[in-house]
Write a structure and sequence with these properties.
alpha+beta; two-stranded antiparallel sheet; 4 helices; 7 strands; globular
Length: 170
């Protein structure tokens, strides 16, 4: 979908902006089943009006959908898609915990770890896979602060791991 089409969907011709759940439907996005933990931890922890999500991976069921490192086995485009899938998993966990994505009032922080080899400098382009999806669903006004960095390896051999902190309503 091109940027102009997205803008029309997201602004509804300048009238009241649709909710996050409405945006998902308008964009034709169906969330996957929330991933199950790969260890002993909670995937979402809420304290007050903050929801902390554990590291989100590009998985479907219990299987990694992308394996490798940026600059070695995978290119920017593949890692960008992995970041998008990890963000879809994050949205699925958020909906499961809150009951609706409409309870998200702000995305506070997005942390993106990118497994790289050598002197790779394209981590921000990879992180945009998650950032673009979150902006499409929640709108530009809820864009988070973001930390992106390269690491030697990640769980299951995946190229990307996301961490999200969300502000939520009661």
């Amino acid at each position: 979908m091109n940027t102009d089409s997205k803008d029309k969907i997201l602004s509804e011709g300048g009238s009241r902006l649709p909710t996050a759940e409405q945006r998902l439907r308008q964009l034709g996005i169906k969330l996957p089943a929330p991933p199950e933990p790969f260890g002993i931890y909670a995937e979402a922890v809420q304290t007050g009006n903050l929801l902390f999500l554990t590291g989100m991976l590009a998985t479907a069921g219990r299987e990694a959908k992308f394996i490798g490192r940026l600059g070695a086995e995978l290119d920017v485009e593949a890692c960008h898609e992995a970041a998008r899938l990890a963000a879809l998993n994050a949205l699925a966990v958020t909906r499961q915990h809150l009951g609706s994505l409409d309870k998200v009032t702000r995305i506070v922080r997005l942390g993106v770890s990118v497994a790289t080899s050598g002197d790779v400098r394209e981590q921000p382009k990879v992180a945009d896979g998650a950032s673009e999806l979150l902006q499409d669903v929640f709108g530009k006004s809820k864009n988070p602060s973001r930390l992106v960095y390269g690491v030697a390896s990640l769980p299951l051999g995946v190229p990307v791991e996301l961490e999200l902190i969300l502000e939520v309503s009661a």
